[in-house]
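Morning!

This is the sequence you dropped in the shared folder:
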Amino acid sequence: MATFDEELMQDQEENKREIAFIREQLPSDLKELYTDAQLVWMLDTIATYFYESGILESDDDEVDVDIDEVAAYLCKEAKSEGQPQLDPDEVRFVVEADLDYQEDSL
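The structure's back. Tokens below.
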């Protein structure tokens, strides 16, 4: 069984792999727009959205995710948490890349 520190290291390595994947998927004008810390925050916030929306509890094999709704949620949370203002049209690409990464990881 992994120790807490080992699990943290594994999470950090997974975040690095996902961030690299997302950066590869983003349009060239967005690749350097977000810091790694901002992308980690977005990934955590996307996970929170899925948890709070009940999507994770679905028994369906296929779940329809409204990317625009997730992007809007990220923008709203960024504003409420004092994060830099996000553009939903740009954030949408991060959400799509995250979903693609999650699908490829299965």
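Headline: The mean pLDDT is 90.

More detail when I'm at my desk.
O.
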